[in-house]
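Subgroup meeting minutes
Present: P.N., E.W., G.H.
Scribe: E.W.

1. P.N. recapped why we're keeping a running log of single-chain structure predictions: easier to compare across weeks, and new members can see raw inputs and outputs side by side.
2. G.H. added today's entry (301 aa).
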Amino acid sequence: MINLDLYKIFYTVARSGSLTKAADELFISQPAVSQSIRLLETQLGMTLFNRGHKGMELSAQGGELIIDDVEKALRLLCGVEDKVSALRHSAQGTLRIGASETIFKYCLADPIVEYHKLYPDVKFELVSDLSPKIIEYLKADRCDIGFLNLPLDADEGVVVGETVMLLNDVFIAGEPYKDLKGKKLSIWDLQKYPLLLMEEHTVSRTSFNHYTDNLGLKLHPIIEVDSWGFMKKLVSDGMGIGCIPREYAQSRIAQGLLFELDVEPLLPTRSVGIALPKNASMSYALRAFVNLFKHKRSYPK
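Output recorded in log:
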């Protein structure tokens, strides 16, 4: 295995022409420098220096043959170290963010714009998928950071931290059900109405199923959808009553296209949280992005 330190010592001695000067520059003892040179000569099977009264001179059949290549290699390595240092102390490179399409739209759009204004040199790679898939991408090094719908089963490969947004699931309806507006309802009353829910195996549907199971109730939807936008469209058109986070329906509620039903008991609050690969090092760019969310929960308008 190549010992780069030996080549750095060799190059420093060659440049300074002195074991003493090299030792001072490298902050090591002169005997340590001499020992390193002897070790490198042994490994290469050649004499690297002629030791004379003028100091350390490169040997014609040893040191002079390799000095140019060693210098080029060390400069390349210094360039690599400079790039790594820049990534650690300035926002550069590409930030790979994983989240669902809805989280990108309602939770991350504004922070991404804000971050770009602060760090315009950073490029974004947006990976859109469901939260369980984002966990797999984090573990496979396909994402640097993920934003997940919670709660999810614990996974040893990722660390879930800061909560960036709370989600309050509510029941919504459109104009055909206006007689229900302002009326006190129980969850059992909803058995009489057509219900729209997200597909099975989504976090929201799992949470809803836990909610009804704990009440000893079975509600069967007439339609299962794969996006909140589609659900809002169908509910607005009178297809039935939907269950959606209030935060994702606020715009249509404000416009009067939908209204929230007063249903008891309330559904449990969920959240969106930040997830990072376990034991992964964080670049400056990633730390800066995470810091946008520190002590600050984001709520869509």
